[in-house]
Amino acid sequence: TQINIITPDGQQTSIDASANESVMQAASRQGIEGIVAECGGNAMCATCHIYVAEDWLDRLPAMSDDEDALLDGAAAERRANSRLSCQIPVTDEIDGLTIRVPDRQV
Ligand code: FES
């Protein structure tokens, strides 16, 4: 599954993600900077905040109440397309997903 990631410096990188990981884990594993993920993927920190490309928003699993509450406390501005990358499982359905990393996580 391919995921396109735009880092704060404007550079776009494509990574390969596996079905047994989250978008956060795939990005961290491949050294993408700017996804801090302090809590290790447990929906407790909001330092894995990302912006999802608009045309992908409806195609991702709905966010939980926990994710919704955490996003309110994210370091970078919360937008309509904000999500926590640790709460997006990698599946065939998200092949080609494009996300943007905010300029800060803490
Ligand atoms: Fe902590 Fe996603 S890694 S909320």
Automatic annotation (TrEMBL):
<dbReference type="GO" id="GO:0046872">
    <property type="term" value="F:metal ion binding"/>
</dbReference>
<keyword id="KW-0479">Metal-binding</keyword>
<dbReference type="GO" id="GO:0140647">
    <property type="term" value="P:P450-containing electron transport chain"/>
</dbReference>
<keyword id="KW-0411">Iron-sulfur</keyword>
<dbReference type="GO" id="GO:0009055">
    <property type="term" value="F:electron transfer activity"/>
</dbReference>
<protein>
    <submittedName>
        <fullName>Rhodocoxin</fullName>
    </submittedName>
</protein>
<dbReference type="InterPro" id="IPR001055">
    <property type="entry name" value="Adrenodoxin-like"/>
</dbReference>
<feature type="domain" description="2Fe-2S ferredoxin-type">
    <location>
        <begin position="1"/>
        <end position="105"/>
    </location>
</feature>
<dbReference type="Pfam" id="PF00111">
    <property type="entry name" value="Fer2"/>
</dbReference>
<comment type="similarity">
    <text>Belongs to the adrenodoxin/putidaredoxin family.</text>
</comment>
<dbReference type="GO" id="GO:0051537">
    <property type="term" value="F:2 iron, 2 sulfur cluster binding"/>
</dbReference>
<dbReference type="InterPro" id="IPR036010">
    <property type="entry name" value="2Fe-2S_ferredoxin-like_sf"/>
</dbReference>
<dbReference type="GO" id="GO:0005829">
    <property type="term" value="C:cytosol"/>
</dbReference>
<dbReference type="InterPro" id="IPR001041">
    <property type="entry name" value="2Fe-2S_ferredoxin-type"/>
</dbReference>
<keyword id="KW-0001">2Fe-2S</keyword>
<dbReference type="InterPro" id="IPR012675">
    <property type="entry name" value="Beta-grasp_dom_sf"/>
</dbReference>
<keyword id="KW-0408">Iron</keyword>
